């Protein structure tokens, strides 16, 4: 891992190790078992991308990043969720890491409560506790292949699945793909950002798309700023996109999102 990625993971582990008043795993299991609704993340992506020229947008609530600092510090997750649903998003992604991205778990809770979309928890998930925590509130969670060895990745994935969570497994390069090749995960995110240099190349999605089976749904993430970017990546068959910074910065989120999703 790069120095910044290692530091993010170290801080994330420390956040949980030093936190007081965390809900117990047994209570999180009860909350998960009492949930009356899990919204299907994959089905929503499929439904939104069936029309000619239409793509599924996972619209992200994102206040900042390690590379650009806090660029939307006052972002309101409730108004975002309402705007994103009105603009035709297939799903929400909510960043819940606070040190570098300015997020928190309550952002996810209130965003989901104010829309009907499935919600992805985007965070640096490296412990079982985080999976149990996610299962009490979200519909899907992110697992980053680069952060975990193959055995731990599969273990956290299986734990999530047992708690009725869907999982978006993120890869960046061929070594990540090799790590997950034995598991045939159904939902794959291809990150266009090099987590070592923070540089972005949207051709990364185009290059890696051919490495996956037809039954695996691919999501391109990072560096998507326009409908032209989307159409470039669509050439390799990808029809789902996770978009954060460009949406969070936009003053007319609804219209911008409609243009991204349909080209209109």
- State the CATH superfamily name: Aldolase class I
The tally of beta strands, per DSSP, is 10
The fraction of residues assigned to DSSP E strands is 15-25%
User: Major sheet: size, sense and barrel closure?
Assistant: 8 strands, parallel, barrel
Strand order of the largest sheet: 1-4-5-6-7-8-9-10
Give a brief description.
The chain has 264 residues and is an alpha/beta fold. 41% of the residues lie in helices and 17% in strands.
What would you note in describing this structure?
41% of the residues lie in helices and 17% in strands. With 264 residues, the chain is an alpha/beta fold. The protein has one domain (3-262): Aldolase class I (TIM Barrel), CATH 3.20.20.70. The strands form two sheets. Strands 1-4-5-6-7-8-9-10 form an eight-stranded parallel barrel, surrounded by seven helices. The longest helix is centred in the N-terminal third of the chain and has 16 residues, at 3-18. The chain is globular and about 50 Å long.
Topology:
Elements lengths: L2 H16 L6 H9 L7 H8 L7 E6 L2 E2 L3 E2 L6 H10 L4 E5 L9 H9 L5 E4 L5 H8 L4 E5 L5 H13 L3 E6 L2 H7 L6 E5 L11 H6 L8 E5 L5 H8 L5 E4 L1 H5 L3 H10 L2
Parallel strand pairs: 1-4, 1-10, 4-5, 5-6, 6-7, 7-8, 8-9, 9-10
Antiparallel strand pairs: 2-3
Helix pairs in contact: 2-6, 4-5
Give keywords:
264 residues, two-stranded antiparallel sheet, globular, eight-stranded parallel barrel, 41% helix, alpha/beta, TIM Barrel
């Amino acid at each position: 891992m790069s120095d910044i990625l290692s530091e993010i993971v170290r801080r994330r582990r420390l956040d949980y190790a030093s936190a007081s008043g965390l809900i117990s795993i047994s209570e999180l299991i009860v909350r998960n078992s009492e949930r009356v609704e899990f919204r299907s993340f994959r089905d929503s992506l499929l439904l939104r991308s069936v029309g000619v020229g239409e793509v599924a947008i996972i619209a992200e609530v994102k206040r900042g990043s390690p590379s650009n600092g806090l660029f939307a510090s006052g972002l309101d997750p409730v108004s975002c969720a309402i705007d994103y649903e009105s603009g035709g998003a297939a799903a929400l992604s909510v960043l819940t890491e606070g040190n570098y991205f300015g997020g928190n778990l309550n952002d996810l809770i209130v965003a989901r409560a104010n829309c009907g979309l499935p919600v992805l928890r985007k965070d640096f998930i490296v412990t079982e506790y985080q999976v149990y925590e996610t299962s009490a509130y979200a519909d899907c969670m992110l697992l980053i292949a680069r952060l975990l060895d193959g055995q731990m990745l599969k273990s956290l994935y299986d734990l999530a699945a047992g708690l009725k969570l869907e999982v978006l497994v993120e890869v960046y390069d061929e070594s990540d793909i090799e790590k997950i090749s034995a598991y045939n995960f159904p939902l794959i995110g291809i990150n266009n950002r090099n987590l070592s240099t923070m540089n972005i190349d949207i051709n990364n999605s185009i290059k890696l798309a051919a490495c996956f089976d037809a039954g695996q749904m691919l999501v391109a993430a990072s560096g998507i700023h326009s409908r032209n970017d989307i159409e470039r990546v669509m050439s390799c068959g990808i029809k789902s996109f996770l978009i954060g910074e460009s949406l969070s910065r936009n003053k007319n989120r609804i219209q911008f999102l409609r243009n991204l999703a349909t080209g209109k």
